[in-house]
Amino acid sequence: xxxxxxxxxxxxxxxxxxxxxxxxxxxxxxxxxxxxxxxxxxxxxxxxxxxxxxxxxxxxxxxxxxxxxxxxxxxx
Length: 76
What we know:
The structure is a single chain. This protein is mainly alpha-helical. It has 4 helices and 2 strands; from the N terminus they run E-H-E-H-H-H. It has a two-stranded parallel sheet. It starts with 6 loop residues before the first strand and ends with a helix.
């Protein structure tokens, strides 16, 4: 919600929230070296950081209250 670039291990929760890597970077579960490399890449590369910040802000719109309410109403 604050536009932070997201790097997460590829497990069910983050995979769904990040839409399989569309809104943030997914790292193979337990691959600490890859996680460290991706984080360092974001620290060192402002353009890449801004790219993932924008993607993150776009992805969070899927969780706006109006959209969530409409989804629940469709189910109920």
